């Protein structure tokens, strides 16, 4: 892979690994739409007041909708919904159902799995996904130059594929690593170790590009090249000690 510049710094790597939510797409809009779907499905089992409590537990603020349903207005980027793997969210939701409804674990777990499965299916990805500045153009450049890249995400494989297909960015993806593929998620190095195993590229020659501190800390733990991307000054400040470069947007990643 040719040398590239990241925020004016010249770097070199044999493989790029991208985060998805927040880096490729506006994560806040995605989380809001997803929580709305889950709140609607939970009304099958919970009262509107209980759904609001569940949303608060997951890190979401809601207001009453016209039909009494909870409408999400904000999702904490450091909360459960934004940071936890789907399997963790399901377990937390099942625990909430046990606490509120007094159900046995197997019933609560089954209900939580139904809520998450159905909300995943009914989520309108085109409405939920707003490409971040530079994402579509970057994917086009990578494809034109045949630069190898993969994805390491806390989302599911199915939704990652569907999301990237919407913007023609899927065909050249070499791999997708999700929490289901590793023992420990970000910021542990497991996802990048798995990427190295899949491709044969040494960890020191892998560049991890992400919008969160956990992405660059994962790269640091794996002794890979961490590239942070965020327009938020506080997040940029947190990333800088752990990253080789910190960018305002993907537009600063030049090949």
How would you describe this structure to a colleague?
The chain folds into two domains: 4-26 and 129-254, HAD superfamily/HAD-like (Rossmann fold, 3-Layer(aba) Sandwich), CATH 3.40.50.1000; 28-127, no CATH class. Helices cover 45% and strands 18% of the residues. The chain is built from eleven helices and eleven strands. Helix 1 packs across helix 5 and helix 4 (86-101) packs across helix 5 (105-122). The N and C termini lie close together (10 Å). The model has no long low-confidence stretch (mean pLDDT 93).
**Fraction of residues in helices?**
40-55%
What letter string, H or E per element, gives the SSE order? EEEHHEEHHHHHEHEHEHEHEE
Task: Quote the average pLDDT.
Answer: 93
CATH topology of the largest domain: Rossmann fold
Question: Helices and strands: which structural class?
Answer: alpha/beta
The CATH architecture of the largest domain: 3-Layer(aba) Sandwich
CATH class of the largest domain: Alpha Beta
Give the amount of beta strand, in percent.
15-25%
Low-confidence stretches: none
Strands, count: 11
Assign the CATH superfamily of the largest domain: HAD superfamily/HAD-like
The number of distinct helices, counting runs of at least 4 residues, comes to 11
Main sheet characteristics: 6 strands, parallel
Radius of gyration using CA atoms only: 19 Å
């Amino acid at each position: 892979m040719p040398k590239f510049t990241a925020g004016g710094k010249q770097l070199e790597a044999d493989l790029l690994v991208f985060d998805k939510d927040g880096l490729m797409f506006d994560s806040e809009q995605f989380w809001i739409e997803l929580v709305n779907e889950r709140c609607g499905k939970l009304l099958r089992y919970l009262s509107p007041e209980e759904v609001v409590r569940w949303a608060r537990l997951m890190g979401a603020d809601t207001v009453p909708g016209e039909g009494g349903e909870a409408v999400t207005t904000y999702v904490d980027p450091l909360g459960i919904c934004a940071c936890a793997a789907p399997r963790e969210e399901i377990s937390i939701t099942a625990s909430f159902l046990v606490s509120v409804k007094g159900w046995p674990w197997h019933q609560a777990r089954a209900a939580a799995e139904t809520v998450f499965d159905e909300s995943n299916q009914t989520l309108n990805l085109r409405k939920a996904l707003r490409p971040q500045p530079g994402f579509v153009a970057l994917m086009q450049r990578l494809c034109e130059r045949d630069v190898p890249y993969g994805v390491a995400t806390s989302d599911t494989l199915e939704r990652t594929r569907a999301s990237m297909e919407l913007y023609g960015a899927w065909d050249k993806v070499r791999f997708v690593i999700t929490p289901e593929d590793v023992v420990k998620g970000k910021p542990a190095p497991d996802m990048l170790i798995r990427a190295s195993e899949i491709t044969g590229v040494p960890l020191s020659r892998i560049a991890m590009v992400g919008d969160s501190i956990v992405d660059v800390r994962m790269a640091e733990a794996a002794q890979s090249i961490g590239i942070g991307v965020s327009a938020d000054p506080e997040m940029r400040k947190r990333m800088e000690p752990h990253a080789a470069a910190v960018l305002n947007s993907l537009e600063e990643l030049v090949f």
